[in-house]
Amino acid sequence: MGAEKVAVGIEIEARRRNVPVELVRNGSRGMFWLEPMVEVETGAGRVAYGPVTPGDVPALFDAGFTTGGGHPLSLGPTGEIAFLKKQQRLTFARAGITDPISLDDYIAHDGYRGLRNALEMAGADIVQTVTDSGLRGRGGAAFPTGIKWKTVLNAAANRKYVVCNADEGDSGTYADRMIMEGDPYVLIEGMTIAGIAVGATRGYIYVRSEYPHSIAALNSAIATAYERGYLGPGLLASGKTFDLEVRKAAGAYVCGEETAMLESLEGKRGMVRFKPPLPAIKGLFGEPTIINNVLSLATVPIILDKGAEFYKDFGMGRSRGTLPIQLAGNVRHGGLIETAFGITLREVMYDLGGGTASGRPIRAAQVGGPLGAYLPESQFDTPMDYEAYAAIRAVLGHGGVVVFDDTVDMAAMARFAMEFCAVESCGKCTPCRIGSIRGTEVIDRILARTEHGRNVRLLRDLCDTMLNGSLCALGGMTPYPVLSALDHFPEDFGAEGAKVA
Fold this sequence. Notes:
With 501 residues, the protein is α/β, with parallel strands linked by helices. The chain is built from 21 helices and 14 strands.
């Protein structure tokens, strides 16, 4: 977005005017339509300006922005910006506020309080606290984190591992990247707590190769954590050990599936493993392994700091705590939204997102990545809750929301889902490997009006096979976008594309 040029411009202008400034690159708050955004620390708190270009810098100095002076780009106090004020940030409490690679800054903003509490607890008590909080996997599967940890805790083994799945490959998602680049210590702390809880002494962060800045930030923070005694042997003089390293991913979407990721970590081709055995029993190098997403692990420190009841007090039903939502696509105010479960898609897209960037009506939104269902306007008021979405054959997944206006061709979107699966399949199981190719061909015949009704029925039958016969979620969830497009937008498939029994 040009932040580097703006930062350099501020430093040059400050020297030219002999104005003392301390410039801190603090990452993004997640309000991407306002980037690059400059915040100025004043006696009354932070004041924001944005979006700032290098050409705006001299005029900002003329207006006295270093002391919060008025300017057309002034956004007022950062915390009062409506997009931020409507949120409940727990996992992202420090993102965009602290210097990401400053351990002192992290500690000054309540960092490592959770770890210090954990070091005073038995492993089983840590696991129970995470279980009581109601935290579920934020990577997409929504499996209860505490149950996974308890399985690893109770597994007998000489060595155990903690693996962070940071292979964030879903379309329109960037929450993992924001944590790794904007608050890497919270992930390091969360993984260290996990290791202490189950008796694991080594962890790996599997980061997608397309995230070089995340890898650099993590490596810098890990090095500092070792220097200061927050990693390694004798962890904070506790007598415990936890080692951590970053591994660059191989670049395949399927490696976001936990067992394919383990294969890749072991130096093999990323292919899905048969289950059982579960990774919690026999995971990395055949040993019991905790596998969690970045957001799941980054949420653990606040639970150990504030307590299970504090975190559980957010959310609804069985969906406790907060959900980081990544709003993208044809939307005016795209960005990171963290709020308690229960908000509706309509509120996210209109109240926070400001509607479409094109100014046209929203026709559909895909929630949960490229394998998520396309939701029509009639479902926009469904609470964003795991069970509520499952009831309408949709998923929250990793929290990605991609918005489409009324010019979208939903048949083309359904075809894209099948083609995406064909390209990204690891090839191990027939329903995914072959089904996705045949599915693309069937959709092409439907759009060509070739035996239209028969091919619509065939597509539904094929989706049923993929849904129930695929080895992992890649093939098993590809029917979600296809069937939702076919069910809710039959007109895009032709007059005969309505539901067929």
